[in-house]
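REVIEWER CHECKLIST
Item 1: Sequence provided? yes
Item 2: Single chain? yes
Item 3: Sequence as submitted:
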Amino acid sequence: MTQEAPLPSERRAQLIARVRETGSARVSELSRWLGVTPVTVRRDLAVLVADGALEKVHGGARVPAAATSDGATTGVGAAGVAATTTSGATAPAGRTAAGLPAGRGAHAPAATGVPAPEGRFPDRDERPTIGMVVPSLDYYWPEVIRGARAATHDTARLILRGGSYDVDHIRHQLASLVGDRGDGTGVDGLLVAPPAGGPESTELADWLAGLDLPVVLMERRLAAGPYREPLESVATDHALGAGTAVRHLAERGHRKIGLVTSRTSPHTSAVERGFRAAVEELGLDAVLDVETVPQSDPAWSDDVAAVLDRCADAEATALLVHSDREAISLVEHAQERGIRVPADLAVVAYDDEVAALADPPLTAVRPPKAAIGAAAVELVRRRLADGDDRPVHRIELSPRLLVRSST
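Item 4: Structure as written out by the authors:
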């Protein structure tokens, strides 16, 4: 006969008893002991902490400092727990003291609370809530969001926040997600694309690393703590993408190649690194390697004019331009000067957001944006299931080159 799962009030009473027996306990340990998901344990602990029955610590809970360590205490609180707790915890019904279902041998695997193989949580109430903060809702990130939404279908709830490239704004959005949702808990995990570079970014990374929940960076690499340990992340190999573009142009017979990047993009350094490495490896002539203001800046017209002047002086025959908007505008300015694309100047765009809409359609490097969102969700889910025993994962995905008329 199958043992029925305990009611929430019974489960919370068991949690209190277990923590009082050991003094403190981690979410991963309690999850295995009860045979429920870490999400369920986190939410139960949040209710018990709010009720004063337990005290929150990083990764778990402990007996409140004011509580007596010996003897029994009885209480009924907002958690719905009416239980007498003593110095000895009783194992959940149908389980041994080690937390194994009754009848399992000493070497049988303990229940882990890991979702079923198909990735579905057994009950909709068991689904984790994942917060997602991105710097933009109108360029690059919509496809990442779609990938995350598809990955959370029937397995998690996704709460989206549109931020900016301002650290304070991003921090405010994150704090609102981590804070109370009205039921005593915040989100169970975070997906975030924070600003990179500078002391404020370092402080934000340290704050994220100190949160008692899974955090996965998207299209960013950050480290935290005194040893600068990396946070979990999913990112595109932008250096590889730039190198692929250079190799494509070299295959087309171009020897004098230039690079135009935006000084405001967090991906610029990786694109530059990949471009320079490929040019050196292939023995090409990098006649131009400049950073410009973004296309939306009033100074863009001056910058693009200077770029085209330098291309003419150096007899450049091809350019890699990051990103699409700058590439399209550069092509328009070139055509106004009578420069034919691709006959006189081949152009490869980087991002492939709107490159196909240009005239002519632009060959472009496309980061796997939807896959970034999906992989980030999976990292959060696995961290929730496996706990702190899981090593930090840093996933790097390869972009694609889509060849069109501009080369």
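Item 5: Key structural point noted by reviewer: The chain has three domains: 8-85, 128-237+372-398, 238-366.
Item 6: Recommendation: ____
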